[in-house]
Amino acid sequence: MAKILVTGGAGYIGSHTTLALVERGHDVVVVDNLSRGHAHNVDPKRLWRIHLTDTDALVRLMRAEKVDAVIHFAAYIAVGESTREPELYFSNNVGGSLALLTAMQQAGVKRLVFSSTAAVYGMPERVPITEDMPFAPVSPYGDSKVMVERILGWLDQYRDLRSISLRYFNACGADPQGRLGEEHNPETHLIPLLLKAIETGVPMTVFGDDYDTPDGTCIRDYIHVSDLAEAHICALESLLNGGPSDAFNVGTGAGYSVLEVIRAVEEVTGRKVPYEIGPRRPGDAAVLVANADKLRTVLGWRPQYSDLRTIIETAWEFEKKRIAKGQ
Ligand code: UDP
User: Fold this and answer.
1) pLDDT band at 185 (very low <50, low <70, confident <90, very high)
2) Mean pLDDT of all residues in 3-7
3) pTM
4) Structural domains in the chain plus CATH codes
């Protein structure tokens, strides 16, 4: 059992990972300023409302709690917003990470799992994407993650900080026991938007049907959030066992088009999805699919929930609860 500090543990992936860590017997403290996360996602006993730039408070907390390792989720995640407010993204995602890393150095904490993204690859020349393909981000969001990955490379070399960067493909779904789910505000992700379109009757817009794919819509690699959480545990335990710094894709290797996801949502819910075809969204690659072999072979990760049906079933169960609660 280890003591783990989770930044951004009140957010979507952070809260699912915190749950998985606790179930695995680890002891967890969450640092979240609740700027985008939700207090109801975290046991109040473990929540510290601290900003990452408050180095003194972070150092004190890490020392008092004898933290063994950090899992760092706290960041802004919306690609579109990052193109409108790049300063905000660099200051929060890069500046916040650097402040956290400085606090870790001062407190002598030498293990970190970092939330990275498939957006570090931009518009890749080929799919499936392997980890050795070059960084080529096409948004401030993607570049903010590249910058942190690069900083981690230097800190591995000069500070003996061992870190694993996990490059997520399309995180989705909800805790299979219904305790947590996806609650972004505003929501920009495909599956929750499809469920909301069913609920409200307001058509969602498919961003382009003229891509070079079989049905013309974009293809993505959808990964269940609980399998993502499990990837963090594999990475963490590797570092705690003395494993080296590295980077891994987290996806399934299977791609689904937007229209295929719509059809799957209709099958699971038994309802029609109202939608219309709109223009392309700037910055969208036609196909983003991971080669996730490295995570399976090196860290022994085994996804359990990432078939599209389970993803949608768990997301739909959570959405129905939210509707019932009037949220
Ligand atoms: N998408 C869409 N309409 C929407 C939101 C998303 O057609 O309102 C498409 C988007 O173009 C992409 C896929 O759904 O091909 C997944 O988008 P999402 O924003 O969920 O994740 P991203 O791929 O940007 O990480």
Assistant:
1) confident
2) 98
3) 0.97
4) 3-172+223-250 (3.40.50.720), 190-220+253-324 (3.90.25.10)
Nearest CA residue ID for atom 15, ligand 1:
218
Among 190, 220, 263, 289, name the best residue to mutate to test ligand 1's pocket (greatest count of ligand atoms within 8 A of Cβ).
190
Residue range 55-74, pLDDT digits in tens? 999 999 999 999 999 999 99
Identify which of 258, 275, 308, 312 to mutate to test ligand 1's pocket (most ligand atoms within 8 A of the CB): 258
Output the CA–CA distances (angstroms, integers) from residue 121 to 87, 126, 290, in the order listed.
21, 10, 11
- Among 141, 211, 256, 305, the active-site one is 141
In this predicted structure, what is the pLDDT of residue 20?
A: 98
- Cβ of 184 less than 6 Å from ligand 1: no
Backbone φ and ψ for 248, nearest 5 degrees, come out as: -135, 140
**Residues 230/301, Cβ–Cβ less than 8 Å:** yes
Q: Does 141 qualify as catalytic in the annotation? A: yes
Residue tagged 């359990």 (tokens): 304
